[in-house]
Amino acid sequence: MGIGERLKEERERLGLNQTDFAALAGASKNTQYNYEKGERSPDANYLAAAAGQGVDVLYVLTGERKPQAAGTLAADEALLLDRYRRMSLEARGTVNSVSEALATFQK
Predict the structure, then answer these.
(1) What is the spatial distance between Cα 42 and Cα 47, in angstroms, rounded to a whole number?
(2) pTM (2 decimals)?
(3) I want to staple 66 with a disulfide (CB 3.0 to 4.6 A). Which of 58, 75, 87, 106 is the partner?
(4) What is the spatial distance between Cα 56 and Cα 63, in angstroms, rounded to a whole number?
């Protein structure tokens, strides 16, 4: 699996389409497409912006997941937790029910 394929995998893990992800990383949709197809290689500025969106850049470049220290959260996990903490008790109950259903859903 190459850089482009791993970049696509990370984008999909974050639940973003090419257009939205490209905008967040400071690129055009066409550039994003070329990165994912392996026709171009992302530069450092793009990778830094992608890392800021929760992309595991070490994984994209090397195929190895970066180890996380115990007790640390990825950017997407921290964002989810922050949103959860700002919800009403009723909303939290809904999120808990939905997350339980999604966690047991088999693809």
Answers:
(1) 7
(2) 0.62
(3) 58
(4) 10
